[in-house]
Structures are given as structure tokens and as C-alpha cells.
Amino acid sequence: MIGTSNYTIGKLVRHALNMLTGFSVAPLQIASLIGFFFTLVGFGLLIYVLVNYFMRGSALAGFAFLASMVALFSGAQMFALGIIGDYLARVHLRSIGRPAAVVRQSVGTLHSLDQPP
Fold first, then answer.
1. Does residue 81 fall inside a structural domain?
2. Is the pTM of this model over 0.90?
């Protein structure tokens, strides 16, 4: 058949993911935000469990304490990895030799300060 693509759905998805992650630091920043959110959630759960323990005097609930610790530390790890990845991505983007800015249009001519126009 004329005009059919040789790309399968898997190849298209892989290409879309490469385009999304290869030219932008946005996924790393999103991972950092999610990690920070889960760190806050874990910290909030830990505060809730400890306040509940001290107010009621009952033993710490194993699942609630464990869930708060897992959320706290996994969120902190994800946040740290997002920051490190963001840093590495920025270093990589600066090292590939692209100019910092691109001039879209030049208006007029540029004159030297020591020569009259």
C-alpha cells in the first residue's frame, strides 16, 4: 500500500517519549514536585501518627507509622533524584554548544562607538 508508515505503535510511543525527555527538563521538574509533595504527605502522616500516639497514649499503629515513613523517605528520594537530574540536564544542555540566544531579526546596522554612523 502506498503512503503507509513503517512506524508501529511501539515505535511511535518510544519516539514520543524520546522527544519529551530529550529536549526538556520539564519531566525532571515534575518528578521533583511529585517527590516534594510525597515528602510533605509523609511528614504530615508522621505528625498525625505521633500526635495520635501522645494524645491517646496507645501504641503506635504499625501500618500507619510504616506508611508515613515510606511516603516520607520515598518522596525525599524522588525529590533529590529530580534535583540531581535537573542539574545534570542543564549541564548537558549547556555543553552541547547551542547558543544561549538566537536573533530572530536584525533591524538596522550596528555601529562601533569610536566611529560615527
1. yes
2. no
